[in-house]
Write a structure and sequence with these properties.
Structural class of chain A: alpha+beta
Radius of gyration of chain B: 23 Å
CATH architecture of the largest domain in chain A: Sandwich
Helix content of chain B: 55-70%
Largest sheet of chain A: 5 strands, mixed
Shape of chain B: globular
Number of helices of chain B: 17
Largest sheet of chain B: none
CATH topology of chain B: Cytochrome C Oxidase, Chain A
Largest interface: A-B, 87 and 90 residues
Oligomer: heterodimer
CATH class of the largest domain in chain A: Mainly Beta
Number of strands of chain A: 13
Distance between the termini of chain B: 25 Å
CATH class of chain B: Mainly Alpha
Chain lengths: 310, 545
Amino acid sequence: MSGASNFAEGVDLAFYIIIGISTFFLVAITATMVYFVIRYRKSKHPHADTSITGSIKLELIWTIIPTILVLVMFYYGWAGFAPMRAAPADAIPVKAIARMWSWTFEYENGKKSDKLIVPKDKPVRLELISVDVIHSLYVPAFRIKEDVIPGRDNYMWFTATEYGSFDLFCAEYCGLRHSYMLTTVEVVDEPQWQEWMKTPAGDSELDKVSEGFNVVKMNGCVACHSSDGTKLVASSFKGIWGEQHKVMVNGTEQTVTVDADYIRESVYEPNAKLVVGFNAGLMPSYKDQINDQEIEHIIEYIKSLGANAE
Amino acid sequence: MTAIPQSGTYINFFEVKRGFMSWLVTADHKRIALLYFYAIMGFFIVAFGLGLVMRLELIAPGATILDPQTYNEVFTLHGVIMIFLFIIPGIPAIFGNFALPMLIGAPDVAFPKLNLISWYLYVLGGLLALSTLLFGDGPADTGWTFYAPYSVKTGTNVTVAVLAAFVLGFSSILTGLNFIVTMHQMRAPGMTWFKMPLFPWALYATAWIQVLATPIIGITLLMIVAERTLGLGLFDPALGGDPVLYQHLFWIYSHPAVYIMALPAMGIVSETIPVFVKKSIFGYKVIVYSSLAIAFIGYFVWGHHMFTSGMSGPARVIFSVLTFLVAIPSAIKVFNWVATLYKGAIDIKVPLLYALAFIFQFAIGGLTGLVVGALATDIHVHDTYFVVGHFHYVMFGGTGFAFFGALHFYYPKIWGRMYNLKWANIAFVIFFIGFNLVYFPMLVLGMMGMPRRYYDYLPEFTLPNLISTIGSWVLAIGLVIMLVNLINGRKGPKASTNPWQSVTLDWTHTQSPPTLYNFDETPQVERGPYDYRNYEQYLKEHNKN
């Protein structure tokens, strides 16, 4: 797979050197071993030369040469890596927000997207933010990966050198839908990117269903709450408005009606009234991410999905 | 444990006492070794089955046979059982317990009752791990690494799973302690440190890691329990903790633990090769020193598991250099093993085949380790299938193959019978091919960029996954043939006391199966452990029957 970022050349050079030396040693060791076993098999060579017990000279040779070689490998590994921790000051800052189990990218002007959209040949610096557990942002074609750790500032940067759409994975196991926590990096030319930055969120790539849908999509709610009645790890948004739900409150079962207050409480205190049959502790509080205005949009959205539709 | 071999002229350790209870209260190192053997094989087969289930799920993109939650629980349980219940105790607890006292001319280990307690702790830990299947929200779904804060947040039975690992840690510590004291105190007269065979040396280096590193994981796992049950903010940033601290503490143990898994296997290989080559191991002292060097340097490389965790640049560079240095002693061992073959009289029997397969596969495991040890390349392949392929080449292709090699090697000594050698060779070939079919495609997948612990994957990763899954069936067929052949071997022809013509004390001075205290009289050691000069004459004078 060919590389598509400024780091690909250095990383791939390290791969060629390490895998080249390794392949040489593997073939040499295996061939020698097989040759000795055939050449000195008992039927052809019945008397072992018991006088051989070692050789200082050989030990030195096969200590010193590998030591030099591994230091060479270390050097190329370091050389390919060092620029990854030296982001240029003029890099375009983008917040990469990870949550179970989706990505959101927030740009300087406040625009958000669920794909990472960047201009070609411009350095981009990602501020890595996790709202729940550890994730890891991985773009194989760019040869970059860095963990996204809750409560810690971490960053990564790159310059995309090819146009196109490249897979972006979560590489650190983060629970149920870890393998679905993927999106793409779209590399476009700079004028196109500038244009895109000016369009309000939702008017281009992003859907145009409703403000509320935008909010639940942007905040990753849809990774667990479906909009079509499918039961994921949390209840679907579809057909719940006005329904009676059995919930656990401090270990005792109660019944609540799904209304505006219940939705508001569930976004801010997800574990206070947990629907029976679902796990506690999976959903973080969105107190700092979703404001009152956005909650109203969510309420409207859930309403729009119908009451007792099932 | 039922079919007791008939020895006739002497009472072997099976015949000393009979009945189920006599096994449950035994203090004989050989019986304890067998207790471990049956328990460990049971767990191995369970975890092997879980591996087959995972491979079947991954045969094609999309859901196949499991839902994602079950898949996550299956790979966690597979890892926990294979690491804590098979690979870590496997060779030391079974073959170390069985052979160590005999290799150094001792009647038993230093603390026989403590040895039995270690086994009970092992069983307790194993049952605790399995109990997570039975209650609550199911077994842990965190991966065997229990990374915080996910392990703090998930509703599955993480608390009991980490308590299981905690208990197993004590089993490991006590075994290590027992072996250290045994080697210091109980070597036969004349057996100086540098006349001690290499398997004991490997166990010695391992034991120090067990004793010094295991307490760290014990405490770390208890911290997870405290965080989950008492809400202490140690690792979860939502409670004021630091998730990277968990990773440091976890790997401060778990990287040295890699050498707990690898060193005894290297010891088995060093022990096996001279016997089938009929000449001294090449560079005996160098192999000893390299074992000690691995055990020592192995403490200082844990950070290479965390190159993407936001550690400071200098820390990443230092851990990378040290990681490359720890590769050297392993490479030296490989060169010495291959050199031992030179001008030997090589008898190509099945234990040697496993040892040679070890060298080949361990070389791939070690060399791919250089890829993950270098910073630039690790950034790309970290947390991908490349890592999964790499550590299975080391753990299974290396230690696993050494384990089965040791089983074939010590089989006639343990049971006094010989399995069918032809079928053992056939099983080996199938097992070897199957192993490489399963794991080589994983290296390719990782280079392509497929992350690990993925229930589902993009279509571009399909072909190597398909090959790997087909390989898992070949591997399973090889394993079944091997085990059936070994089980049938219990009714096979009687083995002589020293069928491989070894010159070490465990073969020359003991019966097959051995007597309760191994030796009729304490052996006097004059020769080096691999002195094959005029060995036919030597064996004529010393072999039993």
